[in-house]
Design brief:
mainly alpha; 20 helices; about 425 residues; about 70% helix
């Protein structure tokens, strides 16, 4: 029995930290763009739609400004959405491997609740309520402080009661569903983390390391994405994947667990992606073409090959749905490998800015949505549309988040409430 710290290499990987900052940073342009090109937050804040008649005509006649559209911009958003969150869950799994290294399972559980659940609840109650006020200002127009306070209290009660309900509870969490999934994954896999920590040369670790030495790299290049594809085949027909629910819940758990396994097999993992970087990149390009074709077929056939939930059309599976499950999982997996392999090549370098940026990840993530709504609304009032509206709103959101981060990081209370690590004690 091993009672000391894990034998995982303690050296922190700068590329993982950089990729965490970059991929979370992509949230801002992505969430801004889907408000412009998909009307995700409602047509009222979409700067491309300036009046009710234009809004009605565009949506009814051309099916523009919805997630079903297949124009170039929309397809780029679809492409990014398929792998960015998967990569973030892998990074979270990697970070978990480092975080568990010198903690007992009790210490880890407490730390996860502090860093994930406290910011989630506080963000849902405060930032979530502010977002609803910005999106529906007419509801609160002319109301007094007492009425607004009453609505806020009802919001707190409603979200607190609803968030844990499977599937529909994610609507109460809004964009903060990521923290809830991450907390569940972390706590659910504690027995695995504990066993690996106590027996660093045990059977589980040997199996994980052995995956990277299977001839031809088939363990990583085939077995992992096939397991992800099987999750889709079993669950995807029944319910659409959204907000980390449906098939996505188990699918993202797979990416999280694999991310943890990558750091357990750290030497073998980095050697693998270093040796096969070119092959991985080339395969990813081919799979991207396959994904675009699949998305166009979804649009043409009216069957949600990418999104799931086609049982409502009386279909469990056919050759196209089965092929779609494999294309979708392989596409996401190989994009993760590509991002991590090139990240390891270019980004494993220290920087005086990295620690600062890493502190800002959770605050930016938590507060950015209401600022996004405000930025889109302001772009519409200024007459900006399409790319100018996206660029303007991104600048507004980035500056707004940065100002708030600078304020939040200065006190112990606000650091605790927004998931920033405590200030080091003198």
């Amino acid at each position: 029995m091993h009672n000391g710290p894990s034998t995982l290499n303690p050296a922190r990987r700068h590329d993982i930290d950089w990729l965490r900052v970059i991929l979370f940073g992509l949230l801002i342009p992505f969430h801004v763009a889907i408000g412009v090109y998909w009307s995700t937050y409602g047509t009222e804040v979409n700067p491309n739609l300036n009046d009710d008649q234009q809004r009605s005509d565009q949506i009814e006649e051309a099916n523009d400004y919805t997630a079903e559209s297949v124009d170039l911009t929309s397809m780029m958003l679809h492409w990014m959405h398929q792998w960015r969150l998967a990569a973030l869950f892998m990074i979270s799994g990697m970070g978990t491997a480092f975080a568990f290294r010198r903690r007992s399972w009790k210490q880890f559980s407490i730390e996860r609740c502090k860093r994930l659940l406290v910011p989630m609840f506080f963000g849902v109650w405060t930032v979530g309520f502010l977002g609803s006020v910005i999106l529906e200002p007419n509801i609160y127009k002319g109301t007094g402080i007492f009425e607004i306070g009453k609505e806020f209290a009802l919001h707190v009660i409603f979200t607190s009661l609803l968030f844990w309900v499977p599937i529909i509870g994610k609507f109460a969490l809004g964009h903060l569903w990521f923290l809830w999934n991450l907390a569940l994954y972390s706590l659910l896999l504690i027995p695995l983390f504990h066993v690996v920590q106590q027996t660093p040369e045990g059977r589980i670790v040997k199996v994980l390391r052995g995956m990277y030495s299977i001839k031809g790299g088939l363990g990583v290049l085939l077995l992992f994405p096939i397991l992800l594809s099987l999750i889709e085949i079993l669950l995807k027909p029944w319910i659409i994947g959204f907000l980390g629910s449906g098939y996505e819940w188990l699918w993202y758990l797979g990416f999280f667990a694999v991310g943890y396994a990558c750091i357990v097999a750290k030497k073998e993992y980095y050697s693998f992606i270093e040796q096969r970087r070119s092959f991985i990149t080339g395969t990813t390009i081919l799979l991207t073409v396959a994904f675009v074709w699949l998305r166009l077929q979804q649009h043409a056939d009216g069957i949600a090959y990418v999104d799931g939930g086609w049982i409502e059309q009386g279909l469990l599976h056919n050759p196209m749905t089965l092929l779609g499950c494999f294309i979708h999982s392989f596409h996401a997996w190989f994009w993760c490998l590509t991002v991590f392999s090139w990240g390891a090549y270019f980004l494993n370098k220290p920087s005086p800015y990295l620690a600062y940026l890493n502190q800002g990840v959770y605050p930016f993530y938590i507060v950015h949505m209401p600022i996004t709504f405000a930025g889109l609304s302001l772009a519409g009032h200024l007459g900006l549309t399409h790319i100018p509206a996206v660029l303007f709103s991104c600048v507004v959101v980035t500056i707004g988040c940065w100002i708030l981060f600078e304020l939040l990081r200065r006190t112990g209370v606000t650091r605790f409430l927004f998931g920033i690590k405590p200030l080091p004690k003198p």
